[in-house]
Amino acid sequence: MTSYLTCLIVFALCCSAHGSSIICENSYMYLSCTFPGQVLHVHSGVYGRTQGAVICPHPAMQTTSCTSTTSTAKVQSLCNGKKMCHLHASNSVFGDPCGGTFKYLEVKYACF
Asked: Which residues are listed as membrane-spanning (predicted)?
């Protein structure tokens, strides 16, 4: 049993990939796993704005504290278990958590 657990831990440490991607509102991204047999596992997906003009600067910025309450579940449903997925950062996909503010989508994921 110990050697099996050690093997799983070593595999997770050496053969998994972790990533984070950010795209601005109305843009597209592809998430993919490069190693054969690996699939995507989304940790979080945040659509909205949680920082000032550092990310996706835009004149329309009425708030810097808004997120879609369903964005993680939506990204997970589109990507989990797949080798590759296509995402569109838009109000039509995630709803509009903060009208008048230019938003972005940040996804944190792993491949294993």
From this structure: none
Structure tokens at 20: 């984070």
Q: Determine the Cα–Cα distance for residues 14 and 22; give it in Å rounded to an integer.
A: 25
Strand partners, 44: 108
Instruction: Give the integer Cα–Cα distance in Å for 14 and 11.
Output: 5
Under a CB-based contact definition with an 8 Å cutoff, are residues 102 and 63 in contact? no
Residue 60's CB: how many other CB atoms inside 10 A? 11
Output the average pLDDT for the chain.
Answer: 88
* Spatial contact of 29 and 105, defined as CB atoms under 8 Å apart: yes
pTM: 0.84
CB-CB contact of 109 with 31 (8 Å): yes
Given the DSSP bridges, would you call strands 84-88 and 66-67 parallel, antiparallel or unpaired?
unpaired
Measured in whole angstroms, the distance separating CA 14 from the mean position of its chain's CA atoms is: 22
Longest dimension (CA), the chain: 58
